[in-house]
Amino acid sequence: MRLLALTASACLCAALSATGAASAAAVPAGAPGTVPATVPATAPATVPAVVPAALPAAGASAAAKVAYGFAWSDGKGVLRVTPAKATLVKEHGILRYKLKAVAGAKEVRLDYTKSAYSRVTVACDLVETEGRVALDAKGLGRTKCTPADLAFTLQRGPAPFKVEYSGAKAVKVSEFLTDWGNPRSAFGTIKRVNDTTVSFKGIKLGYTHAIGFYRVTAKCSSGWLTGKPVNASRDGLGQKPCTAADFTKVLKAQKHPVLVKADYNPLSGELIEVWEVYGDA
User: What is the distance between the alpha carbons of residues 85 and 69, in angstroms, rounded to a whole number?
Assistant: First the structure.
């Protein structure tokens, strides 16, 4: 019996040795699980069929970012916002954000056509809150609306938003309540950027159809400072009320900056009123 067992064991070992040798012969050099002694200098560059889990897949989207601030329409389906510092506070039982300009903050321009949009109003088509607000626990609007509703909001001028974005696309836009800051008044030169935006003293400002524009000329359609200053006050400021369309048209014809007095809101970036200045008055 002992001789039989030893004979069987020897046969089994021989069979296993033969199987291992055959398997080793069947594995080509460089196969997974083996480390080649050297890499051939002429080995072709190949792309692995499976991307290692530790590496990001090609084309992976950038991490989402967040900006709080006043957003402006900047073309069809596009908004622009300069990030501000936002602090959530509770005033008279209502959550709102206090915004503070950040020195050196760079404007962000985003496509919002595929974004989620939530409003502080109780319905998407309301112009004002009408005394009723829909806010979540973080003071953000909770009425679910569409990108078309966002376009409607932006048509009326700047609005305070929290914007979550990835790359150049807004992912989620949430309205919130805020104080609009204090307007300033100053003399300086103004230059057109586009039909709704100007540069005043190096500050980018937007304007809406509600802008006040006062001219020293006889007609609203007259060129800048053309003719007698029949509508100039004693201090040389325009007194003839004109429209936003007049303002756009007259600035469009100017190749160089012109002197004005302006009321503007540095926090929301809105140009509120503009006076043409007659320097010789």
Answer: 8
Apex 198 CA angle, 245 and 248, nearest 5: 15
What is the three-class DSSP state of 112? coil
Q: Quick one: pLDDT band at residue 50, thresholds 50, 70, 90?
A: very low
Q: What angle do CA 4, 9, 11 make, to 5 degrees?
A: 95
Sole residue written with tokens 């160089």: 256
The reported pLDDT for the residue numbered 64 is 86
> What token pair was written down for 82?
């300069």
Amino acid at 165: Y
Tokens matching residue 53:
């889990």
Name the strand (E) or helix (H) holding 40.
Answer: none
Secondary structure (3-state) at 24: helix
> What is the percent of the chain with per-residue pLDDT over 90, rounded to a whole number?
74
Are the C-beta atoms of 135 and 162 separated by less than 8 Å?
Answer: no
Euclidean distance between the first and final Cα of the chain, in Å?
130
For residue range 88-134, list pLDDT tens digits in order. 999 999 999 999 999 999 999 999 999 999 999 999 999 999 999 99
Helix, strand, coil share of the chain (percent; to 5): 15, 35, 45
